[in-house]
């Protein structure tokens, strides 16, 4: 939809617009209102270069695209009924809870193994463990390849799938070869399209899921889904979306919680939504409230930093990890909220 | 705490700072770190003019106050155990649900009376009905004094307390005289200190509660609580805080939902928190999710636009009102979430 | 423009939409694209109740209005060539600089009088002096009616027009009677529609200008212009718009500077834009940069806190006031930037 | 600085805090105020794990670090007087203007060569040309290795240094080998620490400058400078910072302009600031205003999309490129603003 600055295009302007869109096999249909006329573009209206050429005309005010831009991740795409299976769990059938350390301490492997067993007993369906970590300062501990062995040891001992963040091709190759089940793309790399393509290609046909965090900053929802489209277009449609708080900070939390985006995502994409309350709020005592709110909003699960002894953690753990005891109770509460939410899928005019 | 721009104040600078704070009966205590020295202000460190004079010095980088600025609304104030009673309901003892029309249609009084009975049957504890409404454009319907009779008629027929928004002294006087039980201060007037003072004074010793919405814009939490302090300082401490979404808009919602602010408020003030999901999300189908999330975050209640026939509503009703049937079901769910939340008040290291 | 959730409305849905818009004397024109059909509303498409009823339909995704909603303040309205004259100055013909104290200290009237003379000599065209001030805490100094005499004394001694902020009807009446030339509406009251109406009515046909600050929070531009429409509709079209920084805060400044909104305002309204850099950045040393940036963006002027002895100021003055000496130099620089900007009005395809 | 939740730590709490900080060779100094006691941490107070452990204690409210975290990029570091030389230009001595295409069209190499000559004649000091481009959708044109030859051809013909964006190691190696003079890191990769490290290492001792854009989202200023520290720590301190607009969008612009961050950056780091107005505002007609505002804020230069025939551009060019004629005039105006700004470096109490 083309909206001119003046109430109506002149004849010359109209002809210039028509000549541009015809190069892209589109047509123009004017819509004459009381006060002004606007111009619909019929055809592939989102063609980037065409849109930019139109926006480049002095007399055009704005262009509003109407169609969805997603081929694979759109809620009406052919993948609309695609189910993601991770370990024994089919995401969407019951709450998918991922729990474990922010960062694995390579000097204390037993701590992580102990936490892994504890979160399994508490009811988690997968284990998170950061092998490598993005840090604001270059001089902070950045993780260590050697922690991968510890993560895989936890997988073997518990039988649960494991999750870790990868930030570049080197880490991606190690994680895929080692047998990681869920690859996380962190918020700082959420729009690193080179990495998204590499991840899609490296995990194609390998039954490895990808947990794509939302980028820092309140980018539009379409940008978030479009990033997941990169992974799917690369060959792997097992993508889950992860709101994790945005900037600017809400004073008192680490970030501005954004679990409320969940129903908006579910209106546009079939992708499961797994919320990260730990990074949203950034303090252990606030995590259970935020996790329950995420489930109330219809999330398919949550990823929660949990540590058998938070004070001994490295990375964000001492500050934002809950204990396995709190996790156990929280999972029971999440299960109850899951039952409550079920009504909203069928009986009531409410998005699911 | 005074942080200088250079690693340390010079002798002359130090003496200038000391001479300023001594005018306000404060003292300076230097704290010498490895790389720099900072300077604590002992005494009434929040004295505005003193702080501004210090910040006016070229060599000062910033000033961080540490004490809470609230006398009455602070969680540690003498009012910490104050309970607000509205009708038969003690806020905080069970979910406080306010429901009804955004705007009363003065031409169709029966519609509002019908909705009032319906929300009572659905389980609401108070009835909202907009007599006057702030509208973005001056040419939109702004409400009508005559609707006050309809609101009071609903109160008499149902026996429930009633809630309406007031925007100026004229409306305030009418509402107080008519017997309104809850006065709402809307988001656009949330920092209208003249009105806040008038409301505090006009309702002092009258057992009228005030529901103060959060201002549009992501203002700091202290600014929100400070606005409630105006009402309490005016003479009425029966103030409830109401997050209702902030700008900038989350694309797809009317506002950016901010029920997640609830635990942060509860850390600083004893005031009950009643969330408004209707204005946060702005579309009926998203309201129940947002209402449940608010309760999961520990809210004391919600205020929900409910209409017996939303299509016939005026104001925001056709767009964002749910029906009494949806409300009934939602209140049952809210009651369940209330029970779930109880654990977090005692057993777990989680804020309540 | 109505955008349905599914690619096309069903026959029943289409008929329901048609029946609603016909009640408001509008028509529907479908626009059939490749992938979906959207529906233009011909007629008074912004009729609020109609729009809300359409948005209340389950199968409608969104509604995009196209026409401008402004009758008086629109850039194409009959007032498009209206000029505002204040004292001897016609706003828009050369930089309009307002300068003076944030707050008049009623105990030190001479300070203000001294600053008034000094800013006049420095080149200011009007004098600001806060008689009353909104303060975050109820216990801070709120201004004093007695300062009005001091403000008017400054007007008489210098011959320059004077500016002060009013927050309620009481203050408005005092200011109008005393002979204030420019009434400021502060950011906290920028959407206080009751006050805006009172101001429009009280100043109609009195040659008093209104300086309307932008509300705190990054509200949409149309909301800002619509607030000015309230004043114009009340009877006074001498309204100037004043960006003054928004929340959330940019770390290091008091607010997030928003002088960059100027060209966007100038695209939609004929109203002059006077930027307030003092409140945007909140520290004296950053004010000149921000003032020059505002002029580079095409502002018609700036309002700058200036104090002959900032350390002795009350309110925000010690922190953010510049001195008359800095102001004099700044005004010279602003004059140069004004000359530079002139090219952009005629020769280049750039908004003015 | 440790701020407890209660007015004072208990004896047990105090001892626990002391025992933690002593593990990291720090000491605690209590500061007793009227209403509460806070606790200074003397020593390396920013040690991440120590801070997180303290924040993990239930009775701690917050922790405020005071020292700057930057070793190389800090305004007081040993590099404080480091000058970056690019081609014949010493950044900071006169306006550094980079201009050219958003995206090089590999099918029309002559267009880019023509623009390169034109921007040189207009007064630009370096030529930008996008060989590869991040695109929201995977199906959009992503750039092409073959365009590198065209970029280098422009360098050879004009004798000006050239600038291009790199998004991964593959592109980085090609660009370094080909002789690119300025490597851009785009907003989406601004916190891609793996890439930042690679860039720092690959350009060490090669006289290649890096132009680091600010990440999307209003992240804190320290996060931006810390990202540049990654590159410097990798071996190359020739880093320039580039504000380019943040989310959320200001309605009417592509992003929310953030040139106003310039004085805040200059308070903390010696790094030059080169602003990108083209991506901030996103429409050609708004670019000159934003460029001049950036210079008014004290930027060392701007990077501007310029195209000899914008309508024939690909990427963002048709929408946001100005023409060489507009650029020539703009550079003259920028030179004048540069002269105006000079006063503020010496005579006035204003940051430079």
In short:
The structure is a homotetramer of 352-residue chains. Chain A is of the alpha/beta class. Helices cover 37% and strands 16% of the residues of chain A.
Blueprint (SSEs and pairs):
The structure is a homotetramer of 352-residue chains.
Chain A: E1 2-4, H1 11-23, E2 27-32, E3 37-42, H2 48-55, E4 60-63, E5 85-86, E6 89-90, E7 96-101, H3 109-122, E8 126-129, H4 147-158, E9 162-165, H5 169-178, E10 182-185, H6 193-203, E11 209-213, H7 221-234, E12 239-242, H8 262-268, E13 274-275, H9 277-281, H10 287-296, E14 301-305, H11 317-320, H12 324-346
Parallel strand pairs in A: 7-8, 7-14, 8-9, 9-10, 10-11, 11-12, 13-14
Antiparallel strand pairs in A: 1-4, 2-3, 5-6
Helix pairs in contact in A: 3-4, 3-12, 5-6, 6-7, 10-12
Describe this protein's structure:
The structure is a homotetramer of 352-residue chains. In chain A, helix 6 links the parallel strand 10 and strand 11 (209-213). The first copy, chain A, folds into two domains: 2-63, Alpha-Beta Plaits (2-Layer Sandwich); 85-346, Alpha-Beta Barrel (TIM Barrel). Chain A is elongated, with a radius of gyration of 23 Å. In chain A, the strands form four sheets. In chain A, strands 12-11-10-9-8-7-14-13 form an eight-stranded parallel sheet. Helices cover 37% and strands 16% of the residues of chain A. Chain A has helices spanning 11-23, 48-55, 109-122, 147-158, 169-178, 193-203, 221-234, 262-268, 277-281, 287-296, 317-320, 324-346; strands at 2-4, 27-32, 37-42, 60-63, 85-86, 89-90, 96-101, 126-129, 162-165, 182-185, 209-213, 239-242, 274-275, 301-305. Chains in contact: A-B, A-C, A-D, B-C, B-D, C-D. At the B-C interface, helix 2, helix 5, helix 6, helix 7 and helix 11 of B face helix 2, helix 5, helix 6, helix 7 and helix 11 of C.
